Amino acid sequence: MTANDCLARCRETGCTLGALSIRMEQEAGTSLPDILSRLDDMLRVMEAEAENALRAPVYSVSGLTGGDGYLYENYRKEGHSLLGEIPALATAYALSASETNAAMGRIVACPTAGSCGIVPACVLSVSRARKIDREKVLEALACAGLLGMLIDEHASLAGAQGGCQAECGSASAMAAAAIVEMMGGTPEQAFHAGAIAIKNMLGLVCDPVAGLVEIPCIKRNVGGVSVALSAADMALAGVTSRIPFDDAVDAMNRVGKALPSALRETALGGLATTESGKEMRKKVFG
Amino acid sequence: MGLFDIMGPVMIGPSSSHTAGAARLARLVRHLIGDDIRRVTMYLHGSFAATYRGHGTDKALLAGILDMPPWDERLRDSFALAEQAGIEYEFIPTDLGEDYHPNTVKFVAETSQGQRHTVIGASIGGGQVLIREIDSLQVRFTGERPIIICRHQDHPGVISGITTLLYEARINIGNMNVDRDRGREDHTAQMYIEIDSMPPEGLEHHIRAIPGILNAIILLPVQE
């Protein structure tokens, strides 16, 4: 299945990508009420994880990270943020979700645990600021899932295979399309947003300090959010990606394969092997 | 891959393979051995041995032994909960050899009756798990489909007795393995069969009634 196949099906029936994604899940044998209730359960977990680390500092199990969501939220609430309402809220949510993950809290892997902050941060900040109906938000999550399926089929969602572009890059593309869907954009626009997001995350390496899902993962979730928001905003304005989504995914696949193993979740390169990175590893594992 | 393979699972962080998969794996072991585990030693291999502390793999494994699903928020308190439940536990980093997946655990569990069971399994990515060995019998149990495990006399006709029962119930076999008990005098063999649909009530009983079958159990998928 390709983005082009999806667009053809959307044109046939006049449906959105989210509705198509739900229909495909029905065709695979799950009932509509079951699908919607699973999506709703997920959304509830996302709502909790997005705010969990904002009210009080939350620290990771290793002790290497934590407290940044709380710090940022206070700054944002006092009105100091340079970003507008939605990007600032999304930044806070992404920090909270990722810190919650690192602290052994409950999260939704979407597509992975390490990139779990991007989709909820984008979907919740936009839906809350623009008062989007819950039903529409669930469809947007299904839309995000559909882009994830396409990337999984033609590239990879695993940092160990494709680097961070496969995790935070994919999440960013999924989130960008979900935003477009919520804001009433067309399926074509949703794929343009996804393609732009992938292009801006292309080549990102996976180089976690001490092999833990913390540094730089937590702040890379915020990076993924910024990319998703700007990609969605451009697409909604009518900006198109000159490289279509299917080609962007193909590039991501080839770039992932070209990445040396040291930069694919082995903690043998990049930030993991900096002086400070090595020191932190020693602190945790001796 | 369907929608919910991409969106989800709902889980306790930080890692789908090192935390959620570890909890699922240990929970399968719990379901294999029963709720009577008093003592469990977990030998951690490969990446699990190297990074288990930072990913909470140890807490997740013990949570699974306590029958917690991977999204249970009590997971991070599993050490204290195990002590309350009177379960002794130990984690030992080890090297099981190159044949094993980097995220493998060898569980050695003892029940209150003093029975000892060894199960080897791995967290193979994205929260998926695979049990490779149950009391020295080679298996491929993912916890998604039912499996039949039995010991039988090593002579012709016993296996066809089982497959006939399955055929009559219109159950398809997805995977199977037979292994002779080497070094034993009593000419027995062990077998496991993975089946594609739920077994009808009484199937376990009917299998045990086949001449030559010494023991049989059916493991059902773990409901999450």
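Chain B touches chain A through 33 residues (CB under 8 Å).
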